[in-house]
Design a protein that fits this description.
- The protein is of the alpha+beta class.
- Helix content is 21%, strand content 30%.
Length: 267
Amino acid sequence: MKSLGSRRGGYTVVETLIYLAVTGSLFVGAAMMISGQQARTEFTQTVREVESFLRDVSNDVSTGYYPNPGGFECIGGVGSDDPPTLTTVSTSVLGSNGDCLFLGRLFHIKVSGKQNEIDIYTLFGNRLEPVGSGQKDVETLSEADVTISDILVETKSFSEVISFFKIETGADKMNAFAFTTSLATFTTGNLEGAGLRQELFVVPGVAAGDFGNLKLKTEDDSARLDEGPISVCINSKATDAHAVIVIGGADGYGVSSPIINNGPCAL
């Protein structure tokens, strides 16, 4: 006959609590690992969206494609040294902006405020030089008096998992850069440099969002981006990682695939 003191089958309360604690810890660990992997995946995907967007706009400039924001009228500064002006109109007649040229797109990457957004401005300028110069077609961006308008601006928002941290070339930091169309030149009656080639310019010393006195560094003042490519550094808000996209290189304006590394962007 079995003793009344012999143990029956099953677990004690303590054993059950230990089992639940261990199982819960394993579940929490697995959930955190999955969540971390999802955050890394979303960061990588968003950074690649940024790269793809920059590349698409770069290609648009090189092929001469510009968005149509609706009715507007561009009036060139013909007969003076004034830049062109842009106004909204109820209707826009095709071919009515003959005194103006679309010249490129400018990126204002927000490293403060909403740090997951990019403002994209369309650059435009005069087609002809002032009357005193003989009314010849402009051959440089400086001659065109490149300008921008809030009428031709769009904002691109990305997932909030990213945070634009800085834009720099060498030791110089900036908050904007532009892809611009190269203009033709005339030498002894021959057309040279024609076509929709593209150039890359930095926009230094401009307060964030304030482009009222925008002056691109152009070929005229020997300050074109020859010292090195532009680097855009992007932090992850959910993981300990950052990514760098490089614009400009051997071809002068290409957009590189992002490089993702551990840790935040360096100051």
